[in-house]
Amino acid sequence: MDAVTALWIVTWVAIILLFLALGAIVRQMKLLREIVDQQGYTVTEPDVAFAPELVDGRRRVVVAATATCPRCLVILQCALSVVAEGRERAVVLTPDDAADLPPEVTAELDVVTSAQEWQKISHLPPPQLLLVEADGRVTERLSPPDYDTARQALLTWLPATHDSWK
Fold it and tell me: What range defines the domain where residue 35 resides?
């Protein structure tokens, strides 16, 4: 048998083995789908807890955002407009340097740069709106798709300041 014929035989054997392996994977997926359809599937989010110092030991809204994310900048502008309407200042958690954020964000919102705290939510895509209790536990989380959704959540979560009652 010459080398070319042997190569063709080995190639076809490999192709047949790949198709058999693919068939076995498809069969396992079908069985898994049947189990999930029968029993249902639910997932709970992992408990996220920040250091209480992040929120100054009181219930606060945390906007987790990066300076390089365009949607994050839209949500930060939303937070600025809600705070300008007389709501309490939100905390901005970012892994970036505070100087990379727009100057109005650092002036009007409480910016915290902490790689350690960011690591706790780094598996979530930014931006994230988080309602954090005084002990650091996250009780509500929202990944806002747009300005209006973020605005509604911020108006619900951020209390009015005493200055806005006048």
Answer: 1-42
Q: How many domains does the chain have?
A: 2
Q: Which residues pair with 113 in a beta bridge?
A: 94
DSSP secondary structure of 87-140 = BPPPEEEESS-GGGS-HHHHHHSEEEE-HHHHHTTTTSPSPEEEEE-TTSBEEE
Residue 144 has phi, psi (to 5 degrees) of -70, 130
Give the residue carrying structure tokens 């990379």: 100
Q: How far apart are CA 135 and CA 58, in angstroms?
A: 7
pLDDT in tens, 104-163: 999 999 999 999 999 999 888 899 999 999 999 999 999 898 999 999 999 999 988 755
Tokens of 139: 């009780």
Can you give the pTM of this predicted structure?
0.70
Which tokens hold the place of 124? 């979530």
- Residue 65 makes CB contacts below 8 A (sequence gap 6+) with 72, 73, 75, 76, 92, 93, 94, 126, 127, 128
Domain of residue 129, CATH code: 3.40.30.10
